[in-house]
């Protein structure tokens, strides 16, 4: 039954997120104000002359839209892609955690429901499935591993 239900639920989540993305574009200025307010409440200033530790410098104005859609995962990926930076990541994340900002930026209950369905009900990373994954990834033959390991087949 899960084999049938999983693609249906994941499809619904996909289309919900597409719809949410369109709505977020429509309310872009409000979304930006709301996000800035949430960060300010946590003591994090955005694009100010104040170079205080933990303050954000946003380099891509689509930051707010992507944050609304992808939440904390998007925040980390945007940092890796250079969309934002700050001088002290430790201070930034301490403020986020201390003030529960990760909860504030996920205000819609359906987002929490979809997250629960996606990662708890339909979690494909089970111990039973790990054998299948290992078989597919590690029983590929020495030619593949020889292409990136040293002459003694060791990781460097």
Largest sheet: 2 strands, antiparallel
First CA to last CA: what distance? 44 Å
> Strand content of the residues, in percent?
under 5%
Biggest sheet strand order reads 1-2
Q: Percent of residues in helical segments?
A: 55-70%
Topology as a string of helices (H) and strands (E): HHEHEHHHHH
Number of helices: 8
Mean pLDDT: 81
Shape: extended
How many strands in all?
2
Radius of gyration: 21 Å
Kindly summarize this structure in a few lines.
This is Cyclopropane-fatty-acyl-phospholipid synthase. The protein is 65% helix and 3% strand.
Describe this structure in words.
The protein has 156 residues and is mainly α. The protein contains eight helices and two strands. Helices cover 65% and strands 3% of the residues. Strands 1-2 form a two-stranded antiparallel sheet. It starts with a helix and ends in a 10-residue tail after the last helix. The mean pLDDT is 81. The chain crosses the membrane at residues 6-27.
Keywords for this entry:
mainly alpha, single chain, 156 residues, 2 strands, CFA/CMAS
Secondary-structure blueprint:
Elements: H1 2-26, H2 28-41, E1 57-58, H3 63-80, E2 84-85, H4 89-98, H5 101-104, H6 109-121, H7 127-138, H8 142-146
Antiparallel strand pairs: 1-2
């Amino acid at each position: 039954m899960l084999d049938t239900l999983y693609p249906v639920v994941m499809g619904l989540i996909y289309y919900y997120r597409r719809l949410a993305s369109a709505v977020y574009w429509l309310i872009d200025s409000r979304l930006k104000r709301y996000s800035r307010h949430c960060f300010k409440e946590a003591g994090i200033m955005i694009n100010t002359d104040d170079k205080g530790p933990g303050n954000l410098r946003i380099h891509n104005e689509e930051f707010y839209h992507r944050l609304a859609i992808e939440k904390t995962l998007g925040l980390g990926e945007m940092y890796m892609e250079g969309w934002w930076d700050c001088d002290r990541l430790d201070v930034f994340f301490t403020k986020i955690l201390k003030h529960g900002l990760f909860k504030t930026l996920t205000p819609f209950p359906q987002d929490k429901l979809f997250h629960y369905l996606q990662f708890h009900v339909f979690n494909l990373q089970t111990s039973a499935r790990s054998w299948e994954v290992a078989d597919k990834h590690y029983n590929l033959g020495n030619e593949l591993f020889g292409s990136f390991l040293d002459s003694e087949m060791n990781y460097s």
